User: What shape does this take?
Amino acid sequence: MSGPGAVLCLLERDGDGVADGSLRALVLARSAAGALGGRVTAVVFEPRAAGPDAGGAVVAELAGGGVAELCVVSAEGLSGYAPLAWARALEQLVVARQAAAVVAAATDRGNEVMAHLGALTGLPVAANCVAATATGNGSWELRRHRWGGSLLEEAVLEAPCALLTVSADAAADETAASDTAVDGTGPLGSTSAPLVGADVTAAPAVPVVTFTPSLDEADLRVLATESAEQSGGMSLATARVVIGGGRGVGGPDGFAVLEELAGLLGGVVGVSRVVTSQGWRPHRQQVGQTGTKISPELYLACGISGAIQHMAGCQSARHIVAVNTDPDAPIMSRADYAVIGDLNEVIPALVAAIREAAGLGDATC
Amino acid sequence: MDILVCVKRVPMVGGKVVLTADGQEVDTRMSGFTVSPHEECAVEEAVQITERSGGSVTVLTLGPPEAAGQLRDMLALGAHRGVLLETDGREWGPVATAAAIAAAVGELGAATFPLVMVGNEAADTGGYQVGIRVAHALGRPCVTGIKRLELAGDVLRAWREYGGGQEQFEVALPAVVGVKEGINLPRYPSLPGRLRAKRAEITVLKPAWQADGLRKVSLRVPAGSGQRARVLGHGTEAVPELIRVLGEIGLLA
Assistant: This one.
């Protein structure tokens, strides 16, 4: 189960299963372990006492090779997410498994836990990686995101144990697809890599072990409790259609027609940073590096110039259509389609045309 | 309460990132610098706390001598004192940066600042770790990703977004808090604020640069940013073509 080249991969849960970002981290963890001649220990934290069924639903998602074991961590007092306690457990697992690397998703939790682990161990942490190659003797060549993905950094990491978080956009990063890991197992994010769950029935079941870290009171000083407040309505992050509004909307009143279009297309409204800093719309609608990252089927960006901080939030959109008066706006080099014109004329006309086609009549309802 | 807020000077970039010829830095000759967005919100939050319940806000940055300009921008928003950890312009890694900040906090009197605030991550390097490393060096608890904050005596309640809802943390001061944009709407500097900031004295300390285990080799702009959008038409005349594209994408079924 252990030995040189072991790689720990922190898995976050999504319901009973594994969160998408963690599956992406697992692809990198597997590739790294393969290159190092080791195997992956997948790690989940179980708030309830770990019983015989602990991690059962996760095991099903780990089949497909490359994962030596699923380690379910639980401890007295660890009733929920506790960043320092999670890091403390990983620190102890690094020693127990002689791990050469620890990999997590570059989420709020993944980045936070890894930073604590870095602080506990004095090791460097590389956040938002899209590729990692072990070059021997504790040396790694990394590619990571800067500016929310608008820039790529080639970096060298030197550490007895590499602490890495994997960008949510790793799969969308086309440059990663041209790289091949040293062991030839395929690039990070490539769909040809053996993704988890590929062949559940044929693959041997991943053994589940439980791990009880030694924690002290200080490790549990920061412990999350879920708040009852849920943001109502459709989530911007997961919406299939996002209608974006920027400076060109002109003021808070201009968003009504964008809301109407979003309603007709089964989507939600997102805005640029200018719009929230003007106070026209609340920050929770902001798309971008410091707002929400979206990945809709369609992003219709109206009156948005396309600053890199904004594009960092919508680069995973499948189709981008820009409506802008300026044919030379930066967004024109990022969008698939463009309408050159004033959104305040184009969007009402589009709404009317969709209504007419659907037999919905005019906008008075 | 006296609050310390750590900010970072970052290039101001707009529609396009231009790199220096050696691929080592963002070319700032035509753009200039600003304070990383999460950190501006941290300063605003700290100023609001002191406006409600007294105390002062000290704003600290690690950077070249010109970073004093960003400190003055934050003084103009209502911060009271500025501390510059002056560097020779080389990029500092997160381990060395956190060590220098923790040492400076010690020098200024750690007990002076029950609350240390940082931005959740810097806009440029996006390392997600300086605040947490500072917290460890000071032996304090740390919460990050915070978009709502309440102080009741020595207890700090903080909320962040998680999975469509929110998770809540409660810690006793002294503590370190990593703030995200959206926690507030930073004010514009007032004219008296600007004048006060211009005259304010800034404390300068000079920490020694240290190598980090993570070393930048080069930067590059991802390929594929050079495409041009297909123009569907001009003004309302483009609507039929736009409808056709929406249909193609499968949105008008």
Observations:
- DSSP finds eight helices and 17 strands in chain A.
- The helical segments of chain A are 20-36, 56-62, 83-97, 108-121, 255-264, 273-277, 308-314, 343-357.
- Chain A touches chain B through 101 residues (CB under 8 Å).
